[in-house]
Design goal:
The protein is mostly helical. The chain is built from 17 helices and twelve strands. A three-stranded antiparallel sheet has the order 5-6-7, with helices on one face.
Amino acid sequence: MGWQFRKKGRLAFSSKWARWSGQRESNPHIVPPLGGGPFPGEEQTPVNNQELRHTCVKICVTFSFLGVASNAMAYLVRDARSRSPYWYGVYLVISPGGQRRWVRKSTKKQKRSEAKEILDAWQKTADRAAAGTLDQARIREIILETVQRVTGKRNDSPTVSEWLERWIRTEKGAVAGRTMMRYEQIVRDFLSSIGTRAQAPLEALTTDTILQFKERWLSGGRSPRTVNQTIKILKRPFKIALEEGLIDRNPVAAVRPIRTSSAKKGVFSPEQIQRLLDVAEGDWKGLILCGYFTGGRLVDLARLVWGDIDLTEKTITFVQRKTGAAVQIPIHQNLYEYLLALHRSDGPKRPVFLKLFNKPGAGKSGLSMSFKRLMERAGIDDGVARKKDGKLGRNVSRLSFHSLRHSFNSAMANADVPLEIRQKLTGHASKDMNKHYTHLELETVRRAVESIPQLPGKAPRHAVKALHK
């Protein structure tokens, strides 16, 4: 009795053992006894003989060397100890160097027909790899075809590039314009950095690829803070993919941030504020007063319209572009006198600071650089809060327009204003906060704002009158 090669390359015992070959896949741990004996259906002997297993493998390998196609050798088995309900696929993998090895892994399928489709896909992929005709596009095609045959529907399996572009589309309108521009730039830089892997299936992206991108950016001169922020943003689309079941792990989650030193921003003293007002011209006087007495961000305040200001209730109300948080701030007496003299009845949509309204915040001709030049004229050194880190990094100034926000918060803290109230006034709250206070709350925060000391000089009302001439 010996082995004979039957149709489709399947190996089976000849004569009466042919009946046993039909049982092999349904009872893979049962084999006929060596040296003859009763038919396997009458007496079943578990395989405990390791030598027998090795002999079977040698026979299969011998046939593969004789030119038998490897996909003829692929077969399904059950777990010998019944530890798993799934079918296991066993198939031959040939390395580029010609080495052959058998791979056994679970198909995660209980139906034999579905498990067979998956096994065929594995063997097809291994065969193409051995022949040198496998690429990422073909792998993805084989996977999608297999899923479609097994489930009857086309599975959503986007490439890395397709998924990140889809994420960008979902973020539009949900974040601020400048944030959206940053997201788009990060996605472009990332896809360019990983090259052809951008066209690989999303689930094929590994943590090693993210680490290589991180190291490439650092060596290219980006500062650690920039790299940390980039990695933090990249975690978001992959977290969503994990939640939607497109991947079984987030490849960015395991990437740890680089340790950096925090920038120690300074605050302006009332005397320095007055020096800035003395050299400021036109709308800059009002913008500095707003920054110091409201704690608002530069662009938010520059975009104020008269509809945001209620001179009767003495409040300023606006939505912060960065966080989406709505804030309502009582108007300090110094600021109130300036706005009262400046006010014109040209409608609620008229900009408060007309000449600054359309200027960008960043850039050489932007609002930030204009304020920096004002500081130089006032003889105020901006200092260095954090030195340049990386070839493409930059020094962070200790004093800037944003320091007016810190000065506002610090002045109230010095007056023992509770943290909760200070958070409300600076907009450090959820996006769902009610932008209007009750009467009691408004009086409380009004007292908090009035606790900020008056400026040492006179309010710049004479400058306001000059604007109307």
